[in-house]
Amino acid sequence: xxxxxxxxxxxxxxxxxxxxxxxxxxxxxxxxxxxxxxxxxxxxxxxxxxxxxxxxxxxxxxxxxxxxxxxxxxxxxxxxxxxxxxxxxxxxxxxxxxxxxxxxxxxxxxxxxxxxxxxxxxxxxxxxxxxxxxxxxxxxxxxxxxxxxxxxxxxxxxxxxxxxxxxxxxxxxxxxxxxxxxxxxxxxxxxxxxxxxxxxxxxxxxxxxxxxxxxxxxxxxxxxxxxxxxxxxxxxxxxxxxxxxxxxxxxxxxxxxxxxxxxxxxxxxxxxxxxxxxxxxxxxxxxxxxxxxxxxxxxxxxx
Length: 303
Ligand SMILES: Cc1cc2nc3c(=O)[nH]c(=O)nc-3n(C[C@H](O)[C@H](O)[C@H](O)COP(=O)(O)O)c2cc1C
Description:
Elements: E1 7-9, E2 12-14, E3 18-20, E4 42-44, E5 61-64, E6 67-70, H1 79-91, E7 97-101, H2 106-117, E8 124-128, H3 144-157, E9 161-165, H4 173-182, E10 187-190, E11 194-196, E12 199-200, E13 205-206, E14 213-216, H5 221-232, E15 239-241, H6 248-256, E16 261-264, H7 267-270, H8 274-289
Parallel strand pairs: 3-4, 3-16, 4-7, 7-8, 8-9, 9-10, 10-15, 15-16
Antiparallel strand pairs: 1-2, 5-6, 6-14, 11-14, 12-13
Helix pairs in contact: 2-3, 3-4, 6-8
The chain binds flavin mononucleotide.
């Protein structure tokens, strides 16, 4: 018998728990022909801002042992161009589109959420308050109060499912998660990238145009698992876990630590079909283990 793969994130029903992480799958069309997009549980778009952004100075991506550092700086065409030019491609697939948004002010987050609320084919909104590659002294996600303020503003601007994306660059991610939950977030996603650098001894320069960036990939997986486990025990809302997922067994590990769904990120740069392959592998794992429903895995780590 086929195991049940469907999971729920707020009001959102995903046919399986595997989505693609914001910023690592563009707006879908970039992967047309190389990935089985229709097999995914959902797509999280590259983060969209109110107005277009050109992003940071190149080089913006550098490979590191077991990972990569990026400093894209939220390059995107702005919300109106996203709706007009990018969304139509995704509408072809019958899978939920989760729009990731970011603003410089709380008002911008609220305006973006309000604008997307009226767009039928957006299934949910992910609030990116955790991008480490923008010029700001402190991220909204690095403070319980400002996390709560952004979430409250977005919550009152939309009836769609709201997911808050958290940063690992904090002392107590549990407290921040709790604050997002209390402010009305339907779910949490974590982790965004870890603040990092890569330096060239020969040139004595940073390998990134913007000097610093965010580390992702297998190198951060142990940190991600720990943070998900920690947050799982602080909140009641579902978690979308990510950070270095490369294989179906990674998906299982993230679910055991408390993720209801997962996002595949850096792996898309290595194997464009990694996320769809993970769905297949997850189903096989459940069959082998005689587990009828994937929801049984959530938080079931033996301790
Ligand atoms: C090149 C690149 C661009 C990214 N852009 C975004 C973004 O626009 N918004 C966002 O919330 N996260 C962004 N991220 C972070 C990922 O969504 C994810 O949280 C992180 O990379 C950890 O997962 P991974 O190790 O599987 O990549 C980006 C990551 C990479 C590698």
